[in-house]
Write a structure and sequence with these properties.
- With about 375 residues, the protein is of the alpha+beta class.
- It has two domains: about 140 residues, Glutaredoxin (3-Layer(aba) Sandwich), CATH 3.40.30.10; about 210 residues, Jelly Rolls, CATH 2.60.120.
- The protein contains nine helices and 23 strands.
- The strands form five sheets. Strands 8, 9, 13, 14, 15, 17, 18, 21 and 23 form a nine-stranded antiparallel sheet that branches.
- A hairpin with a 5-residue loop joins strand 1 and strand 2.
- The longest helix is centred in the middle third of the chain and has 14 residues.
- The protein is elongated.
- The protein starts with 20 loop residues before the first strand and ends with a helix.
- About 35% of the residues are buried.
Length: about 375
């Protein structure tokens, strides 16, 4: 298998590969960064329908029983539209799909434009195998051996892994937790949705397959002051000590509710991937209750371990970390959710106003200071 360290191959084994977003041949899209936490097989087949491509696809499908969305996800990349996309739709699954790299940009980035090849990525999206079609020991046989030898995702490192999170107990008083839950129940929340970049600009989207949660924005200055005071006194010192980051800004004040009655959950995502979120540095979740089942945070790149903040306590993690909130199976989970950042990030947030579709999202920099007295 190639070590990738050649002029015509930009993939180096052990290195992270470039992320990309591309349409599916059969409709929809594929974002590589969301597929962390599983073994990913990128099969660069060039133009579809050629005898060579058909043969390689048939050989790949001999191991189709190994393809699984949660362990081994296979994506076949074509550089030209197929004559019959329905043929590929019939054999597509959550473990196998076909990508439309019709301008060849992705194939070039992975060194596959000259010689088709199969590249295997680990759960942190780093290349562990690069097998060209003309590999001396045989392409199909070698690919099969690699796939059959892959361990379960939770054993991918050979030792147990823990996500880089900080859990801080006793951030909110229990009285504040009870007040915020009651306040939410009296006021009610709205579908929170999520943000996507559409035509180069960030806009809000709603898709219950990816996220189901209701949020209540805390608009009362008196409530915000109490929340901000407990965060600055009880959480920020721990973040500065253990994460070496001095936060000066807070992104939002919301109480979120995941409700088992409607299947509350949040699919795999990162919190800083679009123009409206690039400023975010650390995500903060403070649990406001504890009488519920499910609805824990999982960081797929580090295995299947579930994380939960204690009642009144916080879990803090980088906004660049891939994570998901598992479905809630009983009751309701209430949490205070926000993001922390600094002064340079605030400047970036203001500059990104031009990249937002929704005028309501525009940042003014007047309300998000954690220490407003210092600004004065």
């Amino acid at each position: 298998m190639s070590d990738g360290n050649t002029a015509d191959n930009r993939v180096i084994l052990g290195d992270p590969v470039p992320w990309f977003s591309v349409p599916l041949v059969t409709g929809g899209s594929f974002d590589l960064h969301v597929f962390g936490g599983r073994w990913v097989v990128l099969a660069f087949f060039g133009a579809p329908g050629t005898p060579e491509a058909e043969q390689k696809l048939a050989e790949l499908l001999q191991d189709a029983q190994l393809f699984d969305e949660d362990k081994i996800a296979v994506r076949v990349i074509f550089t030209a539209p197929p004559a019959d996309s329905a043929k590929y739709a019939q054999i597509s699954s959550k473990g196998l799909a076909f990508l439309a790299d019709y301008d060849g940009a992705i194939s070039r980035a992975f060194g596959a434009s000259g010689m088709p090849r199969t590249i295997v990525l680990d759960p942190m999206l780093r290349a562990i195998a690069d097998i060209p079609w003309d590999f001396a020991s045989g392409h199909a046989q070698t690919v099969s051996q690699v796939l059959r030898g892959l361990p379960p995702v939770e054993d991918s490192a050979g030792v147990p892994m823990n996500a880089p999170t900080l859990i801080v107990p006793r951030v909110f008083d229990f009285e504040l937790c009870e007040f915020l839950v009651k306040f939410y129940e009296e006021q009610g929340g709205e579908d929170s949705g999520f943000y996507l970049d559409i035509d180069g600009k960030t806009a809000k989207a709603l898709d219950y397959r990816l996220k189901r949660r209701n949020d209540l924005v805390l608009a009362l200055p008196e409530v915000r002051d109490v929340v901000r005071g407990q965060i600055t006194r009880r959480l920020l010192p721990a973040i500065e000590r253990y994460l070496n980051f001095a936060a000066t800004r807070i992104d939002r004040y919301i109480v979120a509710c995941y409700d088992s009655a409607v299947g509350g959950h949040f699919h795999r995502h990162r919190d800083n991937m679009n123009a409206g979120a690039e400023h975010r540095r650390y995500a903060v979740t403070i649990n406001l209750n504890k009488d519920y089942d499910g609805c824990d945070v999982v960081f797929p790149e580090f295995g299947r371990k579930a994380y939960r903040a204690p009642y009144g306590g916080a879990i803090v993690f980088s906004c660049g970390a891939l994570h998901e909130v598992t479905p809630i199976t009983r009751g309701r989970r209430y949490a205070f959710l926000t993001f922390l950042y600094g002064e340079a990030d605030a400047s970036k947030r203001e500059a990104n106003n031009a990249r937002l579709h929704d005028e309501d999202l525009h940042y003014t920099g007047t309300w998000d200071r954690l220490f407003p007295e210092r600004a004065a």
